[in-house]
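Hi R.,

Here's the chain you asked about this morning:
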Amino acid sequence: MDSSEQRRKRKRIFRPSSSISALVYFFSVRSFVLCFSFLIFVFLLSYHIPFSSSVFRPVLVVSRLSLLSSSSDLLSTSLSFQDFGSSSSSLLHLQIEGRVLFPDHVLLLVNKNDLFSKNTEFECVYGRNSTGDDVGIVKEKSYSVDVYGDFEFGAFVRCPLPRVNYSAVVNLRELRGNGSNQTVNSWESVAYAAALDGNTVVVFVKGLNLRPDRESDSSQFSCYFGLGNFEKEGRFALRTKAITAAQEVVRCALPLSIRKNPEKARGIRITIGMLPHVHAKAHEHVLLPSVAKISELKSEGRRDVENGKYDLCVCTMVWNQGSALREWITYHSWLGVERWFIYDNNSDDNIKDVIEELEIENYNVTRHVWPWIKTQEAGFSHCALRAKKECNWVSFMDVDEYFYFPYSTPGHQSLRSSGYAGQDSLRSLVANVSSSSPGIAEIRTTCHSFGPSGLNSAPSQGITVGYTCRLKSPERHKSIIRPDALDTTLLNVVHHFHLRKGFSYMNLPQSTAVINHYKYQVWEIFRAKFFRRVATYVVDWQNNQNEGSRDRAPGLGTEAIEPPNWPLQFCEVWDTGLRDFVLSNFADLSTGLLPWEKSSF
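And the predicted structure, written out as tokens:
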């Protein structure tokens, strides 16, 4: 009895300890399994999704529409988050040189590559925001792709802004692989283009905040040149002081090591350093971000420079003006314009096709991609540099502006012959000025602003025939300039340039020539002006600033809402002079059709 009682006591004593041991053993095995599983999970997660890259990063992927089906299938199946984060650049041989964040899109500057062709399409790929709910990546079709060598890149690719749950600014880095630049630059402060001009380089910059229409103190600025292995190290090796600075343009001397052989300058990354305050020392320069590489603006016209320059060229900047281009170029070519520089500011209409057709028809037109928004003055300075090698005179005008020669009296024979203007009249005018007045380097022509002229839809025969009612008093002027006589600052306020000392301008009498400015067209066309103004120092019309500016249409607010009686506004004088001239000189004798009407049919 005693022995059985003792056995029961021993069981009661040892049972708890046995339970504890079993429990400890259970949790030990479970912890080991959980820890091992967690490590495997972390390994797989880090292998497929790099934590440091879970932010918005627009990365280019060649669309399967652009490659052979077998290649595209391979790409589409192999593109995981890891692929575009670490190896898509090497897979597609794409190297993104820089990114610029604009208010309505992201611009990617992509290095030269054999994959690029006129018909190549791309997708923009965005990584998820670490704080968002979406998982994986998002692909969007690019807005546009422009293969272009002027800026020493292979192409400009415009991508949409990221979606709501995707970071847009702060963490735009982490595109690894193949030496791609990992930075996204704000459009508010960046050096965006640079061009050689003799022994100097001209740099175009946003963020200097210099005053319009006047030269600034160049001692506050310097140019920094990135030599050697810049793309990997990100260092600027050489510095030269600025020679001039005005608005968005800074000119610097080339370093001595480059000046002896300017060819070496091509493709070099360059930026601007500026003193943070007046009393700062030279070594305290603050360097602006840069996507600019030095380019050489080579002649692309039909005539070799050795055979002489063109007497008269035209430069303009456009956005979605493909429908207006043919009439404008056909008309002014008849007046003697020999060469056309079209700076395309992010058009998404048919302007490429129109220019290609005009080129086939021997109109000597070249399209130059200029993706930088609100930089018309800088773009005109850039065009003046380009035209200097090819042109004696360059007219800076818009595609809704037309030179018109009223009937000339004998008193104006010094500028052109009496009577109605004949073919090549405008070219003859500038040639006469060159020979008779070599000190004149700018010809200013008065503008008359035309209204909708009672129309509710775009005139089928073109704007020169359709719009015939204008304001009585002229507004402003436009200029034809000699690019070799411009001030070294290249300073301009769109309508005229500053000239070097020793040169002056002349005003053409209105009885000799005027410009018909078809400024206030039918509403469906006019309202496009609300999208964005191209000039740097002109406020966009959606903003309630400078509402009394002459740039705005009188009486309009900040929204693109058609005012009452719009077709009848801005009509004080009926003026059919240019309409009659066009119908007399351009209409087909058998059909009555105008050249731009034939093309549209």
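The first strand starts at residue 59 and ends at 62.

Let me know if you need anything else.
M.
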